[in-house]
């Protein structure tokens, strides 16, 4: 059975987010594979397709010839109403096959606010919400991603969690599921086998004494999706992304990501250049990004940016880089950034006063921030963006007013 997706498209606002068949998407005949996995991001297509983790898992699973991995996302309200009104189940993009007909449903969970979307997607798929209510005929429901570091809020609803980096876990998961499917083991026996994978947590088997977060030792070239799916419509981060580093050498006290993605691992400049060439050649994207929690701490950044210049100029591609520490923009780094990013640079003071910056683990002086912005403007950047956070512990009105004061100082002293 397949859903007649085409008949639904005239009645929704963003039909391109439901049709599948994007450039570089992977399509396999379900009759020629042994295992079918529905990979979900519990938010809109535009957000889910901007998530690098989803792209990596999709790539890794589809490298197995016997596995068909297909995607689905949380439908917008118009599509959800249409599905419910006509008793149509949620479906996979690649094939239109209802999610309930897959062997495995895998959620990538990045944010706590998507927990309710997971339940809604299970309901739209016709699956029991609670693990205890699912039977042998239902797909296994698994989850991974940053939010699974604390799996308990979803423990009643997920059959198996995978905690930490996914590269090794996904491969081991695939091997176990292919074996148990071939051997026709029961649901309980399959979950017991999954529980033997390091970093896994099966709530129905009881709370383990300890779960060790999986850590990928090296960022392998083969594990990264070098030929990215190119959506038909605009997405939140509409560009080709290459992960430059995972983890962070800093210890900012507010940063959950450093804990989730640590320890620090760096991709080699040669691998980055190879991925950039392959990705741009196979996608046609006009913008790319180097993904890292702290790009200025990548030890080869300046040399890498200079080598990227020729590639980006030849393909007429612009470069996006996440925010730079407000005390890290030197003339040498700024000059290298100016080669590949002509218009703006983003600095991250985070807080408006030196007291609060020390409290959160970013002890940088106001004068140093002013100097960095002077450097940026002096090198010809027309716009400097500043990144601040509101609501930090111990924050006072003085700290809030400090944001305004710092911006005024920059406007008068740095911009001139």
Automatic annotation (TrEMBL):
<dbReference type="InterPro" id="IPR023862">
    <property type="entry name" value="CHP03960_rSAM"/>
</dbReference>
<dbReference type="Pfam" id="PF04055">
    <property type="entry name" value="Radical_SAM"/>
</dbReference>
<dbReference type="InterPro" id="IPR006638">
    <property type="entry name" value="Elp3/MiaA/NifB-like_rSAM"/>
</dbReference>
<dbReference type="InterPro" id="IPR045784">
    <property type="entry name" value="Radical_SAM_N2"/>
</dbReference>
<dbReference type="InterPro" id="IPR007197">
    <property type="entry name" value="rSAM"/>
</dbReference>
<dbReference type="Pfam" id="PF19864">
    <property type="entry name" value="Radical_SAM_N2"/>
</dbReference>
<dbReference type="InterPro" id="IPR023404">
    <property type="entry name" value="rSAM_horseshoe"/>
</dbReference>
<feature type="domain" description="Radical SAM core">
    <location>
        <begin position="234"/>
        <end position="416"/>
    </location>
</feature>
<dbReference type="InterPro" id="IPR058240">
    <property type="entry name" value="rSAM_sf"/>
</dbReference>
<protein>
    <submittedName>
        <fullName>TIGR03960 family B12-binding radical SAM protein</fullName>
    </submittedName>
</protein>
<dbReference type="GO" id="GO:0051536">
    <property type="term" value="F:iron-sulfur cluster binding"/>
</dbReference>
<dbReference type="GO" id="GO:0003824">
    <property type="term" value="F:catalytic activity"/>
</dbReference>
């Amino acid at each position: 059975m397949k859903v007649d997706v085409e008949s639904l498209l005239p009645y929704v606002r963003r039909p391109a987010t439901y049709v599948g068949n994007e450039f570089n998407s992977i399509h396999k005949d379900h009759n020629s594979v042994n295992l079918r996995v529905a990979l979900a991001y519990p938010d809109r297509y535009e957000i889910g397709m901007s998530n690098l983790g989803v792209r990596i898992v999709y790539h890794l699973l589809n490298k197995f010839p016997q596995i068909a991995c297909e995607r689905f996302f949380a439908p917008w309200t118009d599509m959800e109403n249409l599905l419910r009104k006509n008793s149509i189940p949620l479906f996979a993009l690649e094939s239109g096959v209802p999610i309930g007909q897959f062997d495995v449903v895998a959620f990538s969970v990045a944010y706590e606010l998507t927990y309710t979307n997971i339940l809604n997607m299970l309901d739209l798929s016709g699956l029991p919400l609670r693990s205890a209510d699912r039977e042998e005929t239902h797909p296994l429901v698994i989850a991974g991603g940053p939010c699974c570091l604390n799996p308990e809020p979803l423990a009643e609803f997920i059959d198996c969690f995978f905690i930490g980096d996914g590269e090794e876990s996904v491969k081991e998961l695939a091997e176990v599921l292919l074996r148990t499917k071939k051997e026709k083991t029961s649901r309980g026996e399959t979950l017991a086998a999954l529980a033997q994978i390091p970093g896994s947590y099966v709530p129905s088997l009881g709370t383990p004494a300890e779960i060790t977060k999986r850590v990928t030792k090296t960022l392998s070239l083969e594990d990264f999706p070098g030929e990215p799916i190119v959506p038909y419509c605009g997405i939140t981060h509409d560009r080709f992304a290459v992960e430059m580093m995972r983890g962070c050498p800093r210890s900012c006290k507010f940063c959950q990501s450093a804990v989730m993605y640590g320890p620090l691992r760096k991709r080699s400049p040669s691998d980055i250049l190879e991925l950039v060439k392959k990705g741009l050649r196979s996608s046609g994207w006009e913008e790319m990004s180097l993904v890292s929690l702290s790009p200025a701490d990548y030890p080869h950044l300046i040399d890498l940016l200079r080598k990227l210049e020729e590639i980006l100029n030849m393909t007429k591609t612009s470069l996006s880089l996440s925010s730079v520490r407000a005390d890290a923009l030197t003339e040498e780094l700024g000059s290298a950034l100016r080669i590949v990013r002509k218009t703006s640079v983003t600095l991250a003071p985070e807080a408006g006063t030196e007291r609060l910056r020390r409290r959160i683990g970013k002890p940088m002086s106001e004068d140093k921030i002013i100097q960095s912005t002077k450097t940026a403007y002096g090198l010809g950047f027309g716009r400097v963006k500043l990144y601040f956070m509101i609501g930090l512990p111990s924050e006072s009105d003085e700290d809030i007013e400090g944001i305004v004061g710092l911006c005024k100082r920059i406007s008068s002293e740095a911009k001139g």
